[in-house]
């Protein structure tokens, strides 16, 4: 329940309605600002960057909601005063709450983008109230992003937007760094509206979080100075939306996939900035429907703590799934979904009804996103090959390398590789060798994705080679694993993890073969849906795995239906059917 009541789409009908929702999200932060306003202390956990940066991040990220609120005509004198004071104190080297100078790859660069966004969209709240000295201090502090190295990924846009903001305020800016950043962003672009998150990076939610979204912002403010690039950014945004809409379910959810899932409803930031920037990827009523259903879906989940603060986690508070860069204030990047609030009260968006999604294919090969999408029963499932390169982010195996990702069931995060219960290998083929669990990490480069199937090879353990074929079916998919093993071991082909919080409301059963002689499958069913796994080939037995609590992003207690296969030395083929759609 949000604010003591369940939200509906009617709570977003007018701009005043949406303002009230925004303030219900942000007002609980007010008691946690320092006296100067420059730091916000909402928790005690750490991130990989300096502890001194953590309260500065928590200061900056609410601006992603407050700036559009102000820009569209909203007013909250208390927040306005906090940010006037905070920007003054935080950039004053003589003040105890000074944010300090930066270093290479400093987390504060990410937060500079929120301040720059405010300077662009509502300078009357973020820039003009500052004294001349405070403006000089802020400019000097923002210039830190030009003095050091910035990560070669989506972070380039932080440098771009910061320099654009200084240019638009008539302040010195780094033309060379701006141009270099824009050239890098173009180098990350692939096709069909999709970017890699840096060279060799993933195609994931950082497209709507930053790459496509900031491109629209750039086009809005630099169209006269850079018309050709602005045109390209708008064209890419149009193309991207035609694919990205397939990630969203009719109920407003989208599937959990990749890193930074604690940013939650930032998943809808792209649609929000399309409404703001006049990108007519879909009619306004459709855009409004996507946005409000998404926000209603999220804000009715238990994602706030008892003080009303957004927590680290996904569908509930959960540090287990976090990255090393998630600090207590990090989740407020989610406020990007509220960019549409910058639309004035008389804009047609506010007069439009929230319409349903347009007619979408039940199966769609998103060639540029490298995935096959299935839709049905208010559930969106992405069949993906996984990564070809490893990186240093947390839990990348679970976030990118499972066979399937679901908007309804999410995915699970391993606590260890010692037991199946701790590993929680939903949507994976897990090998138990020498007392440890091994799963798919990276795949070999020569993989295939088509309209109905994916084929790739991988090595979970030295001496075990697997070629997996995933065939999409109307009811789900079939997995064919060709295995060449140098050891005798067990392998567990697992379905989705379903909520079993209340055993009265869930049904878990083992399924016998047609002749009744062996247990050839397993099924978990609850009021939200079901998942059934069945042996089609191989020496397999249906089982039910109850993983450790709090391993799944969506539900704190789950059960995973799986098939346990006996793997012998040599070559063999096992085949599992996984069903999750009612035919």
Note down, in words, how this protein is organized.
This protein is of the alpha+beta class and 583 residues long. It has two domains: 9-351, Glycosyltransferase, CATH 1.50.10; 363-579, Beta-galactosidase, Chain A, domain 5, CATH 2.70.98. Helices cover 30% and strands 20% of the residues. The protein has 17 helices and 20 strands. The protein has helices spanning 15-26, 54-60, 63-71, 77-90, 108-121, 123-126, 132-142, 144-147, 156-168, 175-188, 206-222, 227-244, 269-277, 284-299, 348-351, 396-400, 420-423, and strands spanning 189-191, 194-195, 363-366, 371-376, 379-383, 404-406, 429-433, 436-438, 448-449, 453-461, 464-472, 476-485, 489-494, 498-499, 507-512, 519-526, 529-537, 540-545, 558-567, 570-579. The strands form four sheets. Strands 9-10-11-12-20-17-16-15 form an eight-stranded antiparallel β-sheet, with no helix packed on it. Helix 3 packs parallel to helix 5 (108-121). It is globular, with a radius of gyration of 24 Å. The protein starts with 14 loop residues before the first helix and ends with a strand. The mean pLDDT is 96.
